[in-house]
Amino acid sequence: MDDRLLDAAVSSLGRDVSYESLEDWPWRRGRGLPAAHRAAMEAEGQVTRQRHRWIPRRSDRTAPAVSPARRHAAERWTPVRRRGPAPNKDAGTSTGFVQNARRDCRALRDERSLMPRSMRALVAGKVGEPTDVLRLESRPVPTPEAGQALIRVKATPIHASDLHVLRGRYGFSPDFPTVGGHMECMGRVEALGPDTEGPKIGERVVVAAVPAVPGPHVAGTWQEYLVADTRRLLPVPDHLSDSTACQLAVNPLTALLLVTRELDVQPGEWLLQTAAGSTVGRLVIQLSRHLGIRTINVVRRRGAVEEIKAFGGDEVICTEDEDLLQRVAETAGPAGVRKAVDCVSGPVGAQVSQALAPGGEVVVYGALSTHRQTDPAALTIPLQARSVIYETKAVRGFWLNRWFGTVSPEDALGALSQVRSLVAEEVLSIPQGQPFPLERFAEAVSLAETPAHDAKPLFVFKDGQDS
Ligand SMILES: NC(=O)c1ccc[n+]([C@@H]2O[C@H](COP(=O)([O-])OP(=O)(O)OC[C@H]3O[C@@H](n4cnc5c(N)ncnc54)[C@H](OP(=O)(O)O)[C@@H]3O)[C@@H](O)[C@H]2O)c1
Q1: Boundaries of each Enoyl reductase (ER) domain copy (predicted)?
Q2: What is the best residue among 164, 256, 280 to mutate for testing ligand 1's pocket, by most ligand atoms within 8 Å of CB?
Q3: pTM of whole model > 0.85?
């Protein structure tokens, strides 16, 4: 697009031009011309120029077939005083040309001069243990294409599934080398691609960077700048902290979809869930309380029991020293519960399926007990065939990537807006993350998988508006 603009400028002037240090042109340096300026220039058939960078060739000074107005516009470089309030009122005249050129150049210089050409990114060269394969690299700042925005990243979490992706054990595999972080981040819109509508430049947004399956490549978030589809951007109000905003698109959305669209749990019904102390688990508890749903919460440590009760869980079962089936029967009645969500799998997931009432269903959305396991037997959910058949129980999966692959972008943004409202109204509160600079990635990665870790690790960057 940039070269085409230059070509258009050349032909609109009816002359050949040589331009020195093209790399130094603002839009080159800034990787992409802001849509508003581009639209204005294209509408007028004009293009911005800078006196000392774009030099008409000597032989062209006598070039024929150039109208006097165009020649005047092309060769007049003296400052022009703007007279009227509307900068384009003289469009089509030499004065308008120069006024617009100067205005656009100023705007571009202002917007672009602070943007670096390169940035830091945390890149995995191949599949492997994250701390072994991740390297801090310098990469060029990417250029947004049509329909994309350039985002300056401010904060991005490290989810267990991000580490699963790097180990080659997740539901999709990116092409390696890959920038890590395939879930979400928050930042500010730095530029828009050609002819692109979207949030305003400088706006604070959440990027839902979960790759749709099936779907196109999505840039990793563990880098200072990334390009993202504008339909995956959700503006967020300033009063939401960076920590909250950067965790808004994955876990809260998962909790909302599980409780409402997937299981349609009704007020007064029991909902059984595992890993209740996880971020998703806590969000499920909060949402359930808001909707009048009662929760039975499974944790693996005695120390987490009081915490979950204090958090609002109606019942808490500790698998360290309690029988899950017996406790569910005592709580929900001998028939069992009709609805459950599980992110542990393995033997715990199997017990959850046994605790279901006839016709009940469990949605499996995670497999925490299989993490770092290599024994094939540890990667299963051993179901009792008779119970599944004769009690017509359903065990099915949920995966956000596939959900993004099946719903329309508008539907996805609608659900994300619902999450934003629930968070803004303080129905859902996302636990505060622990910030890490990119350089300390080994520490951050290790914290992400430490048992009983209180806070989710987040990579944080300055966004240019920090003091
Ligand atoms: N399918 C999807 O689309 C989707 C979307 C979002 C999240 N998820 C999944 O949801 C799960 C929770 O994610 P999160 O980000 O909320 O996690 P998180 O905040 O990092 O918390 C992890 C929790 O899991 C518990 N845990 C870890 N290993 C366990 C095991 N073997 N048995 C029982 N509990 C265990 C931990 O208990 P302690 O406190 O005792 O350490 C901790 O409470 C993950 O499996 C994630 O992949 C899936």
Answers
A1: 129-459
A2: 280
A3: no
